[in-house]
Design a protein that fits this description.
mainly alpha, 2 domains
């Protein structure tokens, strides 16, 4: 864990801040997307996370922003609104990644218990939260395997093994939880 003020911040405070910032981003007009990015840049700097490294490691998120840009441009034909839509989506991704990189699952569990979130919801949320890095590792393994076979650009050869591993892991987890008598409540 990094030694930054955001990493040291208790998830009891980080979670409501994340929720509040996300809600404000969603409710404010698109014109505030640039101001929101101006807020995120110092937060990344305080957390000792490289904004450019984060974006380069998560390039697929930028693809969504580019698709939003093109979609808005085709529908409206207006460049400024299209750029703001892409910037809005990028802000949302960067905010989520900042929370993800600065909060451990244990801290998040403690914060959710503090706010009296039901155990079943806490379990589901933490399972999804901890599955993201595993999915990323699996995608990297599949990508390397497909590249060794000469499939470098095709999406379907990446998607099928990834979905298979997700469903296999889900089945094994369900069996494990059931055999141990897991009761969420």
């Amino acid at each position: 864990m990094a030694d930054s003020p955001l990493h040291k911040l208790s998830a009891v405070y980080a979670l409501p801040a994340f929720v509040l910032l996300t809600i404000s981003l969603v409710l404010f007009p698109l014109e505030y997307a640039l101001a929101f990015l101006a807020l995120l840049i110092p937060l990344y700097w305080i957390s000792h996370l490289s904004l450019f490294q984060t974006l380069s490691h998560h390039r697929f998120l930028l693809v969504f922003a580019i698709v939003a840009f093109l979609f808005r441009l085709i529908l409206t034909g207006q460049w400024p609104e299209s750029v703001l839509s892409a910037l809005y989506l990028t802000d949302l991704f960067l905010l989520s990644l900042l929370f993800w990189f600065t909060t451990t699952p244990a801290q998040l569990r403690d914060a959710l218990h503090f706010y009296r979130v039901p155990r079943s919801l806490t379990f589901m949320f933490l399972l999804a939260f901890s599955a993201l890095p595993l999915l990323q590792q699996q995608l990297q393994r599949v990508r390397i395997a497909q590249a060794s076979r000469g499939n470098t650009r095709a999406v379907f050869p990446l998607l099928l093994p990834l979905l298979h591993s997700v469903f296999d892991r889900s089945r094994k987890l369900a069996i494990s939880l059931e055999s141990r008598g897991f009761q969420p409540e």
